[in-house]
Amino acid sequence: MNFRSIRFPCRAGDAPTQAAAKVAAWVLDDDDLLREILLRLDFPSCLVRAAAVSKRWLRHASDPAFLRRFRCLHPPRLLGLYVCPMGPISSGPHQDLFPDSIFVPMPQSPAESAAVIRRGSFHFHLEHDIFHNSMWDCRNGRLIIDSYMQGYRGNFVQPSASCAIHQHHHCLPRPRDP
Amino acid sequence: MAAPESGDGNNGAARMVTLISSDNTRFEVEAAAASLSQTLQLTILDGGGGGGDGIPLPNVDSATLSKVLEYCIKHAPAAANGGAPNATAVDRAELERFDNEFVNIDQSVLYSLIMAAHNLEIEGLQSLVAKKVADMIKGKSPMEIRRTLGFPDPTPEEQAEMNAHMLEYGWAYE
User: Which residues of A touch B61 (CB under 8 A)?
Assistant: First the structure.
């Protein structure tokens, strides 16, 4: 597979001279300075790409203490919101069914966020026995979803956690009644 | 060296200190400006750098030191005011304009500057240059970052790791 380097061709001015490359290597060999530079990448997607530069960069970019600082400096951005209809559909073939929550991306997102929105999967596949998905909450980039399912002993609600960006989906145990 | 317009709040006569670069060039600068460096601040508070003595800086050459001091002199008045309280929007905009132009320099100077800022513990300058370097690699693929920074071409193993990373984190590569 070709690495995707064609999309952002290096500008001529970007190529460092041999002397500059030598000083760059000297600077970037310093762990403190490398972290200070990585810390100032504005978007998580920039950090993820930088993490692939080398194993050493990956180690710094994925260090929990570093990530805490990164999140402090660049608080998570809202990619969009879910509009949850309040009542069942009143007519037509899907009458009495609740429509699914609809994802609405934030208008005027910065280019880096817009790219993530394009790539993410914010509309969840309905299993044949799920007849309605309702968004409960959003924490740490994961959605808590209530899926209303049809079971042989009647309808029940299956909570699950989903990550729209990584497209992971996990069923959660049902919380006990208080 | 030009004196800062204002901001030395303690007394009228600004105290001067002498800094000596690795290539033995002497720079006379206001103590308030040099004190932006946490490292120098301690020496200056102890009374060092005055008179004929001078503070030797064996890790910083004269070209880099003059650039560092240009930053310190510009930022000293704001730092003396504790950063924000008395600063007007115009002052802040002026500093921002200065900062933007200040880092618009050759890459090798940029790296020497960040190293000096790190050694001298000048937080604002280190942060400013780190931001500039980060801006240079923002929006680029790992391969382009390596080229921008003049890294050698990746080995086949490194290339394979990069490709695997791209597959796993496809959302960051849109």
Answer: none
